[in-house]
Every structure is written in C-alpha cells, then in structure tokens.
Specification:
single chain, 1055 residues
Length: 1055
C-alpha cells in the first residue's frame, strides 16, 4: 500500500485499525473507491456504513439464531484454532531459535554432499581409468618380477619411470607408496647383483652386473671398485674353502691352481671393467685416494693370504719340487699384470727345503747311531770288500762301505736325500747344506771314536784291521764321495760364475766345500800313516769278470727253462751292460757303433694292427656309431691324460691299475683309466646338466694282459651316456637296448645282458652281516666271480678281507641266483631281504627295468644276476654287463667274457663340482677289443678274409707305353666319384695287375689296350668270375655303377 493510502487510513480511523489492513486487497480497493467520491458522498458514507453495519449485525443475529448450533461449533472450532495457532506460534518461535543451528547443519550437509560428489566423480574417473590404474598399482610387482627373472635392464628402466612419475604427482599418496615398494625392490636388486659377483661369473656377465650397479648410482666409482673386489674375493675364498684338507698335497696343489686361475680371472675382469691409471704421481696424491693403489693393495692381500697357506701346508707336503714349479709359474703369470711375486716365494721354499734336508740328514744320522750301537768288530768274519780303483765309475758309491753296514746305510740315506734334493736345490742354501752334512759327518766320526773306546781292549788283529779299514773307508771314501755328490748338485764352476768369484776364492771361503780336515780330526789318531790300495783290496776287474760269468749263467738257465722272452731280454740287457763295464775296466773304450742284439717288440699289453685288422675295426666302429646316432647322441673328446686327482678314488681296488705320469710343468698326471670319469669332469667343468653323448677313444690300464681274450693295457672303449634328471629306469633301459642293438648288428655270437642294482647289493651285504666299511671291498671280491670260482672268492673274503665264514656262505647263497621277474618276486618275499629298505628299493627298480626291457623286446636277452657287482666305486644304482656265450656243442667256452658294461652313477659329477652339484648319469661302455678278437676268430674259422680297401676297380693296360691313357681313365673315374687304383709302374705286366686285384679283393678290372683305345671301348673284367665284357667308354660309369650295385660287398670275401 502506498504512503498516501496509509495516511488516508490514519485519517479515517486514527491509529486504531488493524495493521493487516495495510496489506488487505479489499481495503485497498475500498480506499480507491473513496478516493473517487465527491464530498457529498463522503459525508453520506459514514451513515451508509452504520446502516450497512446494522444490517449485517441483524443478519448475523438472524443467522446466529437460525444456525445456533453451527455457531456454537464454529466458536468451538475457532477456540481450538486459536489454541492450535498459539501452539504453532510457540513452535514457530522455537523454530526461529533453531534456524541458526539448522543453517549450520545445512551448510555442513552441503559440504559433505560436495565431498561425496567429488568422490563420486573420482570413482567414476577410477572406473573409466581402471586399466591404467592397475598398471600403475602393479608397478612394484612388475619390478619384483623383473628382478626375480634377472631382467635387470628392464628393472632399471621401470625404476626410472616410477621415480619420474612420482616426482610429477608427488601430491598423490598412492604414488609415494608405490615409490617405497619400488625402492625396496631396488635394494633387493642391489643385493642380488652383489651376490652374483660372489659366484663363478665370466667377464661378459661381470660387465653387465657392474653396468647395472653403475646405473643404480648407489655407489661412487671408488665404492663400486671396493664392492667388486670384496665380492670377487668372497667367491675366491668360497672356492678355496671347498678344497678337501685331508690330503695336504692335494689341498696345496688345488689351492695353487684355483688361486692362480681365479685370481688372474678377477684381475682380468677388474682391468676390463675399471680404467685405473697405470700410475699416479706422488704430488697428485695430496688429499686424494689413489684408486690404483687400492687395487694393488687388494691383490697384495690376496697373495699374502696365499703365501700364508703355502707356508703352512708346505711343512707337510711330500714333494716340494712340483709345487715350486706350480708356484713359480703362478708368480710368473702374474708379471703380466704387474704383480710378479716370485721373489716372495723364494724365501718360503728355501726355508722349507732346508728344513726338509736337515730333517732327512738328521734321520740318516739317527739311523746310523742306532745301527752303530748294535755294530761290533769283535768275533765277526767281515768280508774284505775290494776298494774302488781308478777305472771304476766315479759316480758309483764306494764298494768298501759295504763291509760296514752302518756307513753304507748312512750313505744310502744321504744319497736318497740328495737325489730328492737335487731336482730342487737353491743356491742360496749351499753353505747351510754343506754345514748340515759336515755336522752329520762329525757325529759319525765321534761315533767311530766311541766304538773304538768301547771295543779296543777286545780287538784281535783281525778286528783291528777291520777297524782300520772302517776309519779309512770313512775318511778316504765316504767323506770324499759325499763331497763329490755335493759338487754334482752344486757345480763349483757354476757357483763361482753366479757369485762372480774365482774357484780358488770359492774353495778358500768353503762355499760348497766340506772341511775334510775338521771332519777327520776326531779319528786322525786312529788312521794309519799309509796304506796301499793293492794291499787292502782285490782286483775290481776280477770281481767284474765274476759278475759277468754269473749273469751269463743266469741267462743260460732262463733259456733252458724256456722262460718268457721279456724276462730273458731283461737279463741279456744286464749282461751286455756288465760286459761294457768290463771293456772300460781294461782301459779301452767300447766303440759306439757296436751292433748289439736288440729285440723289436711292442710294449707289454699292446699290439700293432695290420690293414686287415684296421679294416675290421673301422667296420665295427661305424656300426656302433650308427646305433649311437640312431638314439640321438652327440660326440665329444677329452685329453688322453688327466690330473691324477681327477682319477684317484673313483675305481676302488682297481685304482692300482692307473698309469701315472709326470709332465715338465710339475702337474701329476695319469693316463685315463676309462671314459666315464673324464666325462663327469667335463660335465662339472662346463656346467652341463643334460646331454646324451658317445665317445670312442683309447684308455690305459696296468692290468695283466690276455691277448687271446682281447684284454690289453691299451685298448679302445666305446661309451654311451645319458646325463640329466629323468624318471626312474627309462634312460637305463635305453642303454641296455643300445647294447642289444650293437651286438645284434655285429652278429658276433649269442649273448646275455646281466643286470643288478647297487642298492640291492648293499642291502644284501648288510643283511648278511657285512660291516659297512667292508661293503666296497667285498663288492670287489664278488665282482671276480666271472673270472674265479666261488671257493676262491670266498677264500679272499674270509682270509684277506676278514669276513666271517658264515656271512660269506650266506652271500654265496644269493650270488648263485639269476633269472627274470620271477626271481624278483621271490626275493621280494625273502625273509632276510624283505626287511632291508635298501634291498627292497633295489628290487623294485629291477622290476621296473625288466618291464621296460619287455617293451623294448629284449627281455629274452636280459638276466637278473645277483653275482654281478662291478667293483667301480662310482656306481649308485642299476648295473649291467653283456657277456658273450660260446657254443658248448662245438667245444667252445660257455662264457667268452664281458664285452660291455655300465650302470648308473648319480654322484660322480658332484665330486668335481665346488658346490657338490649332482648330475644324475647312466651309461654303458663297450669293450670293443674283445669284439674284435671274437670277430677275427670268426672270420678266420670261416676261411674268409677282410677287404682292406674299398677300391671299386683297377685300371690295367695290356701293352706298353699306355701310362698316360691309364691316368686319363683313372682321372675320369675319380671325377665320376669311383674309387679306382692303378699300377705305378710305367709298363706293368697284365698278369701282375690282375694278380694284384685278386690279392686285394678288388671286384673289377678295367683293361685298356691299343685296339680298345682306337674303338673307344674298354674291357670290364669281373675279377672273381674272370668274365670280360666290352663296354663303351662313354657308358663305362653307368655300367660300373650298375654292376657294383649288384654285388654284396660286406667287408669280407672268400680267402
């Protein structure tokens, strides 16, 4: 309502009008109507209003009277409404009081809904970006996978990506968590890389590892070098730790070898990875660490550790010489890297050599003193041994010492010491050596004086003469001879030249010279003034003549007794040597070109092979190789000699059959005994855990040879082995199948493959009461059952091996058993064996093996034989042996002997591995020499001969002066890939050419003559049937190929 209307209301009704009129539309309309009235209408308006009010009041009264009840109810409703409105008003007042709180709550609710909205939006975004988020969340897991799989390059790139991502979104907590997880994996990778440096890793791998460490930027370059040297040093210590210390010689030899090889590898790796300067000027080292000095300090520490071990072990080694060679080579090889430490070795070895020498001389003196205590000249009929005259060999010990065995024993011990000392005699200790010998000789001189003081009163004239000879033997024979021996080891000319002094000065200073006067001084009063050699000695020539006579008698007796040629030849050689000495005794020199009888022969247990034999061998070997290749084998080769330690302890009692060598480098070597141990060494050295290989090569055994049975000291072995972890008995059965295929293809004779199990043998021995430490020796005895009777084997077990007779008899009951699956079932129910776990395991394995043999269709050729033992120490499971059987109806032996053998050896490779990592292996070895012997006998019995060549045809000429035509035709046939031969004579006789074809089993002869050349033909002659056919020269190749195809050239022809 406008201000004018409000004023009008106030004018009309003063101030007593309800306030709500100001907002009432009816009032507003009424005022508008009043504003349009004239004055007269306005004056009348109050009256009109009063009338209207009275009318309304009357109407109301009438209405009230008429509708009394309604009014009463209305009044009641109004009262209630008023009451309710009052309540509502009160509540509205309270509401007005709660509105601020409500407003605060609404504000809080709005904030919460806003946050929920944001979270909803974030959840929606999360759902839409689910794949990307999963990739981010899986980053730590991916990092761990890369590290576990060795994919360090990928791990480094992933770590760099995560760090970049986290720096970009540093406000997001999940990225901080991911970064923490990646950093933990980062430390794991660092630990793994450092651990890999502590293992046997090659240079390329080292480069990769250090490259990864550099990219990780955890260490500075200096710290990285230190970590590298620490890790590689740890690996070297680990290698040295696993060297067995039982045998000092072996321990020290392996320590030298491993330290040299591995330390040199570490230095090479360090030089290739880090670029240290060759040298750093001293002036530039102020406040700066010389990294090159750290490297050389580390090397010096490693060499010091090695020298400490060397000095400690050197006290107990048996041979200083070989170790000196190894160590000096070690030091020399390190000169290439500026670390030549040979000068540090010299004092160590010199000191130990002198200690050993002094100890040996001390033992010689002690032995002399013990002998001289029991030695007496009284009532002894001592032989008067002749003295050495001027014609006798000056290097031979004086014969006069033989009369006095304490002196002879002393000299023998001294010579033994000097001989071992001679190969390694340092010049630096020459004075100490001479002083040591001089002290020992003085002790002997005093002992002689003591002997004199004890026995002089009882001396007879004979004993007194003997004592005089004793003193003269010592002073005039023993002392000069010892001096001569010293000068052989230390030649005065060489010593003087090395010292740069004259011989006279050398003698004056007594360098390498004994003080003979001081040595003889204690017994000088006991020596005669002069004694001639002729008075004290019989003629040496007569003694030598007597020796020649005795030796000749021995040779005659040996020939009369028909001894072996080897024994006779040995004694004849001794006789010739004695005769040569006798010639020199006469003062004449034996001419150097005297034709002495010399027996040409091969060494014992070896043989030469003729072309026929070699042709047969190659044929057999080709068939064997074909079987090996059919089964998927590859071939390798190993050295013919190995380090002795590689072979030692692998063959049980047969280790005594190993041939030992010694090369110039000081390594103790042996010829290989078989091909299995070198194969195991090859696997361990090259870290191979899975291979199927064959190897054909010569092996050597110092055995008693038997040529007729194909047993030699040098012979071929054909080995087939399967290395790797596979299911039980599957590869084992294939090895037996291979043996059967080879023997079937060679068609040598009927055979049987005997099988047994090492666990069954051990269980059997245990059940029979054999002590555990006697298992292998008893096994070796059982292994001889194919060569000796049970009684002989039992005697060896009881008398030599110390086994009780009851245990031997129980073993005898078992080793007589053989059969197939029925025997396995019988033994499984055996009361004794069924209680032994080892025996049960062996029987179950044999049962499985025989089942596989049935599948391979060889069960009729396999026999489960409990007498089979195979004495080699390295077998751990199934063992087998193929034996040829003779034809009893033809008077042949029932068993010709073993031609193949083998078994499972699961622990052999681990013997060569530093960490004892095992590679299970099974294999078979064929003794082809016996197969060759059987086949040779078979061919000889069939009156056939072996073709020594594979020539297809021989080109002959019938007339003279046709050598060029002969060469042209040969060249044509060679180019057509035929094997042809011709005579090297210019004009050979046709008959001689045809005879050559027959002698050498050449199937065809191609004859050329002038008429054949003119007509462009040749005569093709079948050598066996002597049928000749003219063939055009242009068609010769096709015709010859066709006829060769019709022939069955199987390597032998009728003799």
């Amino acid at each position: 309502m406008t201000e004018e209307r409000v004023k009008l209301l106030k004018l009309l009704y003063s101030a007593d009008y309800p306030a709500e009129w100001e907002f009432d539309e009816n009032v507003k309309e009424y005022l508008t109507k009043l504003a349009a009235y004239k004055v007269e209408d306005l004056i009348k308006e109050p009256r009109r209003l009063e009338v209207e009010f009275a009318n309304i009041q009357d109407q109301t009264q009438d209405l009230a009277v008429t509708n009394y009840k309604t009014f009463i109810e209305t009044a009641e409703c109004s009262r209630q409404l008023f009451s309710q409105f009052s309540s509502i008003e009160h509540k509205l007042d309270e509401l007005l009081l709660d509105i601020p709180k409500f407003q605060t709550s609404c504000t809080s609710f709005c904030d919460s809904t806003s946050q929920i909205s944001n979270l909803r939006k974030l959840n929606s975004l999360t759902l839409t970006k689910n794949a990307q988020l999963l990739e981010i969340l899986e980053l730590p897991q991916l990092m761990n996978s890369f590290i576990n799989d060795g994919l360090y390059e990928d791990a480094l790139e992933l770590a760099a990506y995560v760090r970049k991502l986290c720096s970009k979104h540093s406000d997001i907590p999940i990225f901080a968590s991911i970064l923490d997880d990646v950093n933990r994996a980062w430390l794991l990778m660092l630990h793994q890389l450092l651990n890999q440096l502590k293992q046997d890793v090659a240079l390329p791998r080292c480069l990769q590892i250090v490259g990864h460490l550099r990219r990780m930027e955890v260490f500075t370059e200096l710290e990285l070098k230190l970590k590298f040297l620490q890790a590689r040093g740890h690996w070297l210590d680990l290698c040295l730790k696993y060297i067995p210390k039982d045998d000092v010689d072996h321990h020290l030899t392996k320590t030298v070898e491993l330290t040299r090889i591995n330390l040199f590898n570490i230095i090479t790796q360090y030089r290739a990875i880090f670029s240290d300067g060759e040298s750093v000027p001293t002036s530039s080292l102020k406040g700066v660490i010389n990294e090159n000095m750290i490297f050389f300090t580390w090397i010096n520490a490693r060499i010091s550790d090695f020298l400490e071990v060397l000095e400690g072990d050197l006290k107990s080694v048996s041979s200083v010489e070989s170790l000196l060679d190894q160590c000096m080579y070690f030091g020399l090889s390190f000169s290439k890297v500026g670390c030549d430490f040979r000068s540090l070795l010299i004092p160590i070895f010199t000191k130990q050599i002198m200690k050993n020498f002094s100890a040996a001389i001390g033992r010689a003196v002690a032995a002399f003193e013990k002998s001289i205590e029991n030695f007496t000249l009284i009532n002894k009929n001592l032989p008067n041994i002749p003295w050495k005259n001027k014609h006798q060999d000056p290097l031979q010990p004086p014969d006069s010492l033989l009369e006095f065995y304490p002196l002879a024993e002393y000299l023998n011990n001294v010579l033994k010491t000097l001989n071992s000392f001679r190969s390694c005699a340092p010049v630096a200790i020459v004075s100490e050596v001479v002083e040591c010998l001089q002290r020992s000789l003085l002790i002997i001189a005093r002992s002689i004086v003591n002997l004199y003081s004890q026995e002089q009163q009882a001396f007879t004239s004979s004993a007194k003469g003997a004592f005089t000879r004793l003193c003269m033997s010592f002073s005039d024979e023993l002392v000069p001879y010892v001096q001569k021996c010293v000068h052989i080891i230390y030649p005065p000319n060489q010593i003087a030249g090395q010292l740069g002094i004259t011989l006279q000065t050398l003698q004056d200073e007594r360098i390498s010279f004994l003080n003979r006067e001081a040595i003889v001084e204690p017994i000088r009063h006991l020596l005669p003034s002069k004694m001639s050699i002729e008075e004290c000695d019989m003629s040496a020539k007569e003694a030598l003549e007597q020796q020649v006579k005795d030796q000749a008698d021995m040779v005659r007796k040996l020939k009369a007794a028909k001894e072996s040629k080897e024994r006779i030849a040995e004694e004849v050689s001794k006789l010739l040597d004695l005769k040569a000495q006798l010639v020199a005794e006469d003062g004449t020199v034996a001419p150097t070109n005297v034709n002495q009888k010399f027996t040409l022969k091969t060494a014992k247990g070896t043989r030469d092979y003729s072309p026929e034999q070699m042709a047969l061998r190659l044929s057999v070997l080709n068939k064997i190789v074909a079987v090996f290749k059919k089964h998927g084998a590859v071939t390798i080769d190993t050295p013919v000699f190995e380090l002795k330690e590689v072979l030692t302890g692998k063959y049980g009692e047969d280790s005594k059959l190993i041939y030992d060598l010694k090369d110039q480098g000081g390594e103790i070597l042996s010829l290989r005994y078989d091909l299995t141990v070198p194969f195991a060494r090859y696997l361990a050295m090259n870290k191979i855990s899975n291979i199927k290989r064959y190897h054909i090569a010569k092996v050597y055994r110092r055995d008693n040879p038997s040529m007729s049975r194909g047993r030699y000291r040098e012979f071929y072995q054909c080995d087939f082995d399967i290395a790797g972890a596979f299911d039980p008995m599957i590869p084992d059965a294939e090895c037996i199948k291979i043996v059967a295929e080879i023997l079937d293809s060679l068609n040598v004779a009927s055979y049987v493959v005997k099988v047994n199990h090492r666990l069954l043998l051990d269980g059997m021995f245990e059940a029979c009461g054999v002590p555990l430490d006697s298992f292998r020796s008893i096994c070796s005895a059982v292994d001889k059952l194919d060569k000796a009777s049970w009684q002989d084997v039992k005697k060896e077990m009881v008398e030599e091996k110390g086994l009780s007779e009851a245990a031997a008899d129980q073993i005898g009951e078992y080793v007589k058993l053989n059969g197939g699956k029925e025997l396995v079932e019988k033994l499984l129910s055996d009361d004794t064996l069924s209680k032994n776990k080892s025996a049960l395991e062996g029987l179950e394995a044999i049962k499985l093996l025989l089942g596989y043999c049935e599948i391979f269709h060889i069960s009729d050729k396999v026999s489960f034989d409990l007498s089979l033992a195979r004495g080699l120490d390295y077998y751990t499971g199934v063992i087998y042996e193929a034996v040829l059987l003779g034809d009893a109806s033809k008077g042949e032996e029932v068993s010709v002997g073993s031609v193949a053998g083998g078994g499972r050896y699961d622990n052999l490779v681990g013997m060569f591995d530093v960490k004892n990592k095992q590679v299970p292996c099974v294999g078979v070895s064929l003794g082809v020499e016996r197969l060759f012997a059987v086949l040779e006998q078979k061919i000889h019995a069939a009156n056939r001969k072996v073709r020594t060549t594979e020539v297809d045809a021989y080109v002959c000429t019938a007339q003279k002066n046709l050598v060029e035509e002969r060469l042209k035709l040969c060249n044509q046939l060679w180019e057509d890939d035929f094997k042809v031969e011709y005579s090297y004579k210019k004009n050979p006789k046709l008959l001689a050419q045809l005879q050559y074809c027959e002698e050498n089993s050449i199937p065809f002869a191609i004859i050329l003559g002038e008429s054949e050349i003119k007509n462009g033909v040749v005569k093709l002659r079948n050598v066996l049937s002597r049928e000749e056919t003219e063939v055009k020269r242009s068609a010769l190749a096709d015709e010859l190929r066709r006829r060769l195809g019709e022939l069955n050239l199987n390597g032998t022809v009728p003799a």
